[in-house]
Design a protein that fits this description.
This protein is mainly alpha-helical. It contains ten helices and no strands.
Length: 258
């Protein structure tokens, strides 16, 4: 593990805590955690940043998933099927991630965020109503192939925003409300994180000691966020999504052009 100052360590742990909360509520904790790692560890290769990010994120995501499954009306069987496709996709994405430069990550994340913001703003009622019941077989197959495989590959390759994209895609494809989509996304996201982490671990690009410490804070944030989302409902989730997206767009724009 590289030498890290106490100030940087506190900053990274705080980012992991908040990212866990964000990820549990609406997904996309990596949109905070990955830039924080890039900022705190500017001389560490991008592959190690991505691998460490996955090692931290899987802990908080798993905690949130367990909390959701105990309370929310999640179709666990469907979520696991999508998750298995996502696991395979994320391993493929992680295989190609070793050649990614840190300089490429920031603008890519910013473009991704702007796309999410535009979609949510243009669809103010998206995911705030009641779900439409069990999805048809065709919709489930679409979710397995496109949501699982496609977003899983993205998660392994880059990662930031995967939880948010899963929530949006599951809401659109399976006609879920945002809370149920968040719960389902957590199960899928555990699988994508596991697949990507396995590949990063095989390549030796995980800072395990740092990840273990940050994971404790990420787990605490994830458990708290999941309970809050279940209590407050879809409108709260949508509000958090918009705040997170616009805050991070502003931060990344400032970093890119300052």
């Amino acid at each position: 593990m590289p030498d890290i100052s106490l100030t940087t360590l506190v900053f990274l742990c705080a980012a992991a805590l908040v990212a866990g909360w964000i990820d549990a509520v609406v997904g996309g904790g990596g949109l905070l955690l990955l830039p924080a790692l890039l900022l705190g560890l500017p001389h560490v290769p991008a592959a190690h940043i991505l691998g460490t990010n996955k090692a931290v994120a899987i802990v908080g995501t798993t905690g949130a998933a367990v909390t959701y499954v105990r309370t929310a009306p999640v179709q666990v069987k469907t979520a696991v099927r999508i998750g298995l496709a996502a696991l395979a996709g994320s391993m493929g994405g992680a295989f190609f991630a070793a050649g990614i430069s840190s300089d490429v990550l920031r603008p890519v994340i910013m473009v991704v965020l702007l796309g999410v913001a535009a979609f949510v703003m243009l669809r103010p009622s998206f995911g705030t109503g009641e779900g439409k019941g069990p999805a048809t077989r065709a919709r489930v197959v679409t979710a397995i192939v496109l949501v699982g495989g496609g977003i899983g590959f993205y998660d392994g390759l880059f990662g930031p925003g995967t939880g948010t994209f899963l929530v949006l895609a599951l809401t659109a494809v399976l006609h879920l409300d945002l809370v149920t989509a968040s719960a389902t996304a957590k199960i899928v996201n555990v699988c994508t994180n596991a697949g990507a982490l396995a590949m990063f671990a095989y390549q030796g690009t995980v800072l395990w000691q740092l990840a273990a410490l940050m994971a404790v804070f990420n787990l605490a944030g994830g458990l708290f966020g999941a309970r809050m989302a279940l209590r407050k409902g879809a409108e709260f989730v949508r509000g958090v999504l918009l705040v997170v997206v616009f805050s991070l767009v502003a931060k990344l724009a400032f970093d890119q052009w300052s």
